[in-house]
Amino acid sequence: MDIKEIKSFELTPFTKMSASIYGVLGFVAAVVILVAMVIVQVTGVASEIGSFNVITGIGIPLIILLPILGFFSTIAVSFFSVILYNALVPRLGGIKLGMNGNEIEKIPEVSFALILAAISAIWAFIVGLTLAAVASPILSIIGSTPDATGIAANFTNITGSAIPTGTNFGAIGIILSVALIIGLPILAFVLTFISNAFFAIFYNYIVTRVAKINIEFASIRESLHEIKHIPVLPTALAVALVYLIMGIITGLLSHNYTEFISNFILYFIETALIAILYNYLAPKIGTVKLDLE
């Protein structure tokens, strides 16, 4: 087994491929939703829909909006995530893969979970900062309005529950801001680290006995490689089996004993579609390129 480390991704090829794939997946999702709604309307399951035309009212807008939303949102997320990954690798180390030919035999848990958790925490910090910038002024404005005390009194009389008034809103705004800016990134880091560590553990010690993720790398020059092809069935099966195991555990905790079935089906289909689309698009728009050492 040969341990390889992903030192960096080339920004443009990764972003272009990711956005294209999720743009197509957005279209597929829109078609599935449309078909489901048409079936519901035709069979009369949801009689309240009445004579509403789901094709023109919802279907066509979804078919237009979801691919556009998927494409452009993925551009933003992929672009910034790759920048973060490339910047963090010298400090935290990159994702390591134990390769045996094209098969991923092992995913070292700490390196895999650590950098993904760090990226997630930075994203959470940005989201928290944005939400805090919006929420804190709104709470301050509400607390300073002349009717705030009267509204609070009426709410208390009706519900029996007291709500803060006046300057208390400002204090809540400060607490909320701290929670969003500091607490949310910490929570994101911890949860992402744990979930990805478990992903790697389940993959390494259970799933590889049944199926393994396959990625065909091709050397371009020195350490620069490209992902030439992704075998669909073994990769989709391996990923789906990991989420099946995770679904069993989370299902037992939440008493949702069918979660593992939906996990397996959804992740198998999603991973298979991503692999199929990648293999189809790679010769047309270019492969994902990365430094692999």
TrEMBL record:
Protein name stated in the entry: DUF4013 domain-containing protein
Lineage of origin: Archaea, Methanobacteriati, Methanobacteriota, Methanomada group, Methanobacteria
Keyword rRNA-binding listed: no
Keyword Ribosomal protein: no
Ranges that cross the membrane: 21-42, 62-89, 110-135, 169-202, 230-254, 260-281
Annotated keywords: Membrane, Transmembrane, Transmembrane helix
